[in-house]
Amino acid sequence: MIRSFLALVLGSLGTAVTSVISMIIMLFDRQGKSVQFIMSKWAWFLLKLAGVKIEVNGLENITQGESYIFISNHASLLDIPTVCLGLPFQLRFLAKKELFKIPLFGPALLSAGHIKIDRGNLESAVKSLKEAAIVLKKRGYSALVFAEGTRSLNGEVGRFKKGGVILALSMGIPIVPVSISGSASLAAKGVYLVKSGGIKMTIGKPISTEGKDISARHQLVSVVRDEVIKNLVEEDAV
Question: What is the pTM of this model?
Answer without folding.
Answer: 0.85
